[in-house]
Please model this.
Amino acid sequence: RQRDTRAMRQYGGPATAPRLETLSKASREETDHAYHEIMEGCGFYVLEDIHTEDEIAEARKVILDNIPSDEQNLLNLRVGTPFENQSEEKVKTDAAAPLNKRLYHLLPRSRVLRDMATHPRVMALMYRILGRGFINGTYSANVLYPGTQKQEPHLDYPYWDAYEAENFPGTFFKRSDFPPHVLACQTLTPITEYNSTTGGVGLVPHSHKFGRWPDAETWESKHVQPVVKPGSVIVHTALLWHAAMTNFSDDVRIGISGQWLPRYVKPMEDISATLTEGMIEDSAHPAVMRQLCGDFYAYPTTFSFDTPQD
Model:
């Protein structure tokens, strides 16, 4: 009989994810189709009818009730999203174009937002792309006011400093028909409709295979702005060229950005530090919430090393 070595290989604890909710046959087929479209196809997929109208309304209220101060927002933009407000397009405002507002730490603010983040159809797709025990790196809101300018086209964390070649191994900058390894996925959840007027996300199909930083000429000729209704979720890898676009409308454009990482990639936001045990239990999927915090993963560790005294 072959010896079972699984227990011997659990260095620092098993990198296991909780059992995911069993999906319908149609949802399992959708997960498979979405995976291939994201990895081999155009690079993104829209999961439709994920969230209810009541969830979207609650998310909108929580976000607008917690808009950060100008001082906090400048810190959020500088530390969290360095590609904002890069355009000089004519917009419907006589004053200087308003900055967008970035609201972090959404998960502690509402049970509804925790349940939206852990929706089984979204989690099943993340599991397929990122593997067992994937974690969350941020679940944050982006509010574009009328006139807010578009972002610079970019890759997302942890690739977002790939504009300097020396920041990544040379093997990164090679074209590939199938990205061999993905270090992050993004979800974009429209709270208001995404379209070309409201500043919905722009994407360059197939650009996750390019292996390079966006250039202006390719972006201008190839990017698309899909119309995506509230309740849907856009999924793409962090390698896909994308940017929030200018809001030409007379109303705010609100979306939620989710960052999802393999368990061994350092997250952008310390999710675990923002959630209490009570908040985790007060969710539709507490085991999944614990997984997303990365609490089960032992690394980095000091191996019980006693720090030398001065």
